């Protein structure tokens, strides 16, 4: 049986991995750098907490759709207003909307202000008088988180191999060329944006169930930056990179916060974490997913006999084979 600490740590990693997958869909697969992803995470966490009375748990049949639906509705509004822009303008608009959501919960009594609010009872799933499982049991919640992560990973892998996935790859590579080919790119980008928000809200929903407490800091831009670092650490363009990045970020954080290992210097864990991230990015530019190739010495190097034909264009460089989506 897994001990309490390791069970909590495993759930934390899986929830952050689910959150990272939501952003990977936007950044790594569609080329949309969103700096407001934490807003959707926070909405999912706050909705389930606000819907749960202090006397009994809310119905899971109502709480989960409400949390995901609220994030989807907010993402639909933000997407319609921001997706017509590109580059830094898109980043700033999503950041602005996320900060608006942050201050709604931080500066009002809706979410308990800066102190946050407690989730006293987890949602209950019932079919009549029968309760299939009890989320108040840590091991049951662990398997529920695992199932959500596995289902999301498989679902995204299938999506990226579909026609929609190929369209998103084309948008990332060259959106203007996609438009010239007759594709209306806005519906695809908006669909990816809303789906990404729903997945982030699911992660926030599970986070609230795990911790039993939420505060406005989970909607802050710092958290959006942290999840962006996770997918960069893991390797952009790879779904498994989001999983690796979330695990590496969480484990490094836990390591450097350990007073048993670093004593009083553990209070400076952000410094050590920052240096570690810089080192990983510098020595592994493709992220952790590129580590096996790096260790195996399989990095591409120009062959000596090719030096005489410098400047020549190989036939393979001009071929137009379809892009391979990485999982």
Automatic annotation (TrEMBL):
Q: Where in the cell is it found?
A: Cell membrane
Q: Which residues cross the membrane?
A: 6-27, 32-52, 58-81, 88-105, 140-160, 186-207, 219-236, 243-265, 271-295
* Keyword flag Membrane: yes
Q: Which CDD domains match?
A: TM_PBP1_LivM_like
This protein's source sits in the domain of life called Bacteria
Q: What is its main location?
A: membrane
Q: What's its membrane topology?
A: Multi-pass membrane protein
Q: Which PANTHER family match?
A: ABC TRANSPORTER ATP-BINDING PROTEIN, HIGH-AFFINITY BRANCHED-CHAIN AMINO ACID TRANSPORT SYSTEM PERMEASE
Question: Under what name is this protein listed?
Answer: Branched-chain amino acid ABC transporter permease
């Amino acid at each position: 049986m897994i001990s309490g600490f390791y069970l909590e740590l495993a759930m934390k990693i899986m929830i952050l991995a689910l959150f990272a997958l939501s952003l990977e869909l936007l950044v790594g697969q569609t080329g949309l750098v969103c700096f407001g992803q934490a807003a959707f995470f926070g909405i999912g966490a706050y909705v389930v907490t606000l819907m749960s009375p202090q006397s009994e748990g809310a119905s899971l049949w109502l709480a989960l759709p409400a949390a995901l639906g609220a994030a989807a509705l907010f993402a639909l509004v933000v997407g319609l207003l921001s997706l017509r822009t590109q580059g830094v303008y898109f980043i700033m608009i999503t950041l602005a909307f996320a900060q608006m959501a942050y201050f709604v919960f931080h500066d009002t009594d809706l979410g308990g202000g800066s102190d946050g609010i407690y989730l006293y009872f987890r949602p209950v799933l019932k079919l009549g008088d029968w309760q299939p499982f009890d989320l108040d049991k840590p091991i049951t919640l662990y398997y529920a988180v695992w199932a959500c992560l596995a289902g999301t990973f498989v679902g995204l892998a299938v999506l990226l191999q579909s026609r929609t996935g190929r369209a998103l790859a084309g948008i990332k590579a060259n959106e203007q060329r996609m438009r010239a080919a007759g594709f209306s790119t806005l519906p695809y980008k908006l669909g990816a944006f809303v789906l990404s928000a729903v997945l982030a809200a699911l992660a926030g929903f599970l986070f609230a169930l795990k911790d039993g407490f939420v505060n406005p800091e989970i909607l802050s831009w710092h958290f959006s930056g942290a999840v962006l670092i996770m997918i960069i650490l893991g390797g952009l363009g790879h779904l498994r990179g989001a999983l690796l990045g979330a695990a590496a970020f969480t484990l490094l954080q836990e390591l450097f916060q350990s007073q048993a290992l670093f004593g009083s210097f553990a209070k400076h864990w952000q410094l050590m974490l920052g240096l570690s991230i810089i080192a990983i990015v510098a020595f592994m530019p493709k992220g952790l997913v590129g580590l096996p190739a790096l260790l195996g010495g399989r990095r591409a190097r120009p062959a000596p006999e090719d030096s005489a034909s410098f400047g020549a264009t190989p036939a393979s460089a001009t071929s137009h084979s379809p892009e391979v989506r990485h999982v």
